[in-house]
Specification:
The protein has 167 residues and is an alpha+beta fold. It is built from six helices and five strands.
Length: 167
């Protein structure tokens, strides 16, 4: 788990309060290409998402902020497809089973997992997957390429302790 001083830092990080909609009002949205939420405090996050939607309505397509939300309950995905905005993409990582996505046109995509030779540390692999997929999509990669890249980078993360040297 690391040295005692790192453990103290980890505890203090884990005790940080969630960002509120009031806090989010201070964010200069023009500085961002993508904002990702982990579904936690729904009421606050809905207000934050509405702010991004208002921001996007007043911007040209190339200046709009893309958004994503992580829902960690796979059962929730079943009901989401009919509730998301047309053109949305749904992605679900399945750990050692790889990941699936339903693209804007309804096409189902899959990437196999890329497990390391030796499993070392899975802590943060899901966040690593999310970051890699968002990075690839924001760089203009196809959904299939982003899904595969996310699985590759998450697999690398599982083969090392911590995060140094993933890419």
């Amino acid at each position: 788990m690391g040295s005692p001083e790192n453990q103290g830092q980890m505890v203090s990080i884990m005790n940080l309060p969630d960002v509120t909609a009031h806090d989010f009002e201070k964010v200069d949205l023009s500085q961002y290409k993508w904002i990702h939420w982990e579904a936690r405090n729904a009421a606050e996050q809905v207000e934050m998402m509405r702010r991004v939607e208002r921001h996007n309505r007043s911007r040209e397509a190339g200046e709009r902020v893309r958004t994503s939300v992580e829902v960690e309950n796979p059962e929730a995905l079943r009901g989401l497809r009919s509730r998301v905005r047309p053109g949305a993409t749904l992605i679900c990582a399945w750990a050692e089973e790889g990941a699936d996505a339903v693209g804007p046109n309804g096409e189902l995509l899959h990437s196999d997992a890329f497990p390391p030779e030796t499993l070392v540390d899975t802590l943060g692999a899901g966040d690593t997957f999310n970051a890699a997929v968002i990075f690839a999509l924001s760089e203009g990669k196809s959904l299939q390429d982003a899904l595969t890249f996310g699985c590759q980078i998450a697999g690398r993360k599982c083969g090392i302790q911590g995060f140094d040297g993933i890419v």
